[in-house]
Amino acid sequence: MRTHTALRGEIRLAKPTVDEVSRANINAQLLCQGFSFFTCLMFLMNVMEAIRLLPWLQVLHADHWQVPFVTVTMYCAFLAMYVSNKEVMRWSHTKRITRRGGRWVIAWWTMFFLISLGSMIFETVKIPRHLAEQCFVVLVLFMGSETMKKFYIRKYLGAKPSTEA
User: Fold this and answer.
1) 36 within 8 A of 108, measured Cβ to Cβ
2) What are 13's strand-pairing partners?
3) Contact 24/89 with Cβ under 8 angstroms?
4) How far apart are CA 115 and CA 131, in angstroms?
5) What pLDDT does residue 112 have?
6) Is pTM beyond 0.85 here?
7) Which residue, 142, 161, 137, 141, is CA-closest to 150?
8) What's the pLDDT at 12?
9) Which of the chain's ends, N or C, has fewer CB atoms near its CB within 10 Å?
């Protein structure tokens, strides 16, 4: 992205070229696909930890399998990187493909609710150790992104953001 210095030392971004926009969109698509794959993997790992009775885990002699903390940390860092990339592209006025992040938030909290409900009904179902933290990180990053989107709309589009979800 090219920059220009305006009067009074303000830095303004130059309008991106078509090549810059297409390159940014390709990178965003790759990042989104990687994020989607990693999210599905985290869902699977959390469900496996919740159920704890998978036959192939017994073959591996794993009495109590847990999602490693480093994996949870990597997921949260990857999610923060994805959201940051999205916000930088928005604020640099780079045209990008819009995605519905709210669906992931709903999916995380639905999984948390179902596993919590299952743990109350069945003795064998346990809530994964770091699932609540993951759900809160997903919610906080989503709410931060939505707040930044509202600020962007007010500042650059001069309109009040719609209240519909």
Assistant:
1) no
2) 3
3) yes
4) 10
5) 92
6) no
7) 161
8) 54
9) C
Which tokens belong to 84? 């940051």
What is the pLDDT at residue 110? 92
Q: What is the pLDDT of residue 104?
A: 85
| Residue ranges of domains in the chain | 18-155
- Enumerate helices (H) and strands (E) in the chain, giving the number of each: 5, 2
- The DSSP line for 84-109 is HHHHHHHHTT-------THHHHHHHH
What tokens appear for 109 in the block?
A: 């909290």
| Amino acid symbol at 39 | T
> What confidence score (pLDDT) does residue 140 get?
93
Taking 70 as the pLDDT cut, the residues of the chain under it are 1-25, 28, 52-65, 95-98, 159-165
Q: What are phi and psi of 123, to 5 degrees?
A: -70, -30
For residue 11, what pLDDT is reported? 53
Nearest to 13 by CA among 67, 65, 90: 90
Residue ranges of alpha helices (H) inside 1-122 are 18-51, 55-59, 69-91, 102-121
